[in-house]
Design goal:
Elements (H helix, E strand, L loop, with lengths): L2 E3 L11 H4 L19 E6 L3 H11 L6 E7 L3 H10 L11 E5 L2 E4 L2 E6 L16 E4 L7 H9 L4 E4 L26 E3 L3 H17 L1 E11 L25 E4 L2 H8 L7 E8 L5 E9 L5 H13 L6 E4 L15 E4 L4 E3 L3 E8 L3 H16 L4
Parallel strand pairs: 2-3, 2-7, 3-6, 7-8, 8-9, 10-12, 14-15
Antiparallel strand pairs: 1-16, 4-5, 5-6, 10-13, 11-12, 13-17, 15-17, 16-17
Helix pairs in contact: 2-8, 5-6, 5-7
Length: about 375
Amino acid sequence: MATSMAKTAFTGNMGALKNVQRVAPARGAVKMEVVAQKKLRVAINGFGRIGRNFLRCWEGRQDSLLDVVCVNDSGGVKQASHLLKYDTTLGKFSADVKAVDEKTLSVNGKNIAVVSSRDPTQLPWKAMNIDLVIEGTGVFIDTPGAGKHIQAGAKKVLITAPAKGSDIPTFVVGVNCDGYKHDYPIVSNASCTTNCLAPFVKVLHEKFGVVKGTMTTTHSYTGDQRLLDASHRDLRRARAAALNIVPTTTGAAKAVALVLPELKGKLNGVALRVPTPNVSIVDLVVQVEKKTFAEEVNNAFREAAAGPMKNVLAVADEPLVSADFKGMDQSTAIDSALTMVMGDDMVKVVAWYDNEWGYSQRVVDLAEITAQRWAA
């Protein structure tokens, strides 16, 4: 079979590193008509990697329709303030962060209440008039679990993980958010890998028609792995995360069908967890209906990056490595030099993503959409 491979080229269309990183105006990925100007009162449940990234992303927004008023963190104010201010991956937070008292955290002079409860039904959401809970624990990801926040008085819940159960709608910014409705009490922002994969799969499917394919994500280790060999329900994740390549499962490829139903049953994949703290890369191989070549595929991505997927999808034309994508606002960055076409119908696409920061930007975006669609 003939093989075509895109030549490395530097383009101004999101190609330069300066354009790949932090390019989103006001950090927002979507522009929509604002239905109501009310600021939603937001609480973050679980102040771990995504919870803290979310707060940093939100703090950097201009004219946000969100007002973060409370954090539920089992470690208390001292832990929350210290880990928000100092971060091994992100560096020191530029905002002024301090513990005001045993129940209050201050970020650039804005006070945020800190509570500590492992039972969502005991959280003060009703008393605090919470509109939206950012569910970041990774635990309460089905209707009974996330619904506990609503029992406690919150009006809506946004899960920062794949949801369990078909009754919770999943949204990926840039892919299917036009279908968001205000009457959804609980929604999922999918996974970081689905947020990387779905936008460029949508482009591929619309331009060339995806028949079937497989995906591998080479993913930085996460808190769900063990630092040293120790018990874990997944025997591979039980092994030392910083010393091994750890093959494991991912539902990201199948989850694409939740936001692109026409691709149901057409994609599958695996994950390789590797000894890096952040930034991951997806390698997708698909058979397509329309005959094509590598540069045509890359041009389709460039058109999307300059148009409907601006600030969600980027194209990197320089020979970069994972560290170069740390802090990238977009959900996905196509590595154009690695795009290949075998024959004329087997397409290989490689895309980078910051699995913490880029994902958290999309959580903020989906929360902003929730505010924009809020009933008057």
